[in-house]
Amino acid sequence: MTNFFLITLSVLAINASVYAQKERKYFLGSHFSFGKSEYYPYGNSGGSNYKGRSYHTIGIDFGYKVSADAVEFYTGLFATNVALSYNSVLHGWSESGNGTRTTVNDGNFRIFSVPVHFKYHFLKYLFADFGVSANLNITGEDKLLFGAEAGIGAEYVSSSGMSLSIAHQMQFNINVMQEPRYSSGIDKLIRSGIKIGLGYRF
Q1: Inside any domain, residue 136
Q2: pLDDT tens, position by position, 73-97
Q3: CATH number for position 140
């Protein structure tokens, strides 16, 4: 009889655990990402005067599973610093007034982003995600950028709901320049790197 009760309790506990795992529809967490950036301003499609170097992003993520197991919608707020370098040509710097000199300067973009993404889970631990974002550049004259992002990675969720993930991300941003004389110009910012996330599913 005792064995029967123990077996019954064990089965109920396992079922409750499985049910709880399936019912974890919400996600709240944060992430850190880093990698390489490339910047192509309008009128300089080859990028000879501007060179992207790196980027770092921190973000807050909120997710909601729109299907029982596979598809998840998420959004959040991201802050990104993009480091770049650019060349400046100085004319008439020599004593004769005929020389030129090129100097390399450091610069950066600081961008706040609000994404709208979908994440597809498969093979238990793997996922692919894709989506778009609206990005506000708080440095420089051209403020609003529109972006797209895609990636693939892996996520581990413990029995308590703690989540740890790592993914490779590709991000592409364009900025339609606001000055009338550049009405048809487009800036391009491309980022490729690693995204590490930590959160809680409930």
Answers
A1: yes
A2: 999 999 999 998 877 666 555 555 5
A3: 2.40.160
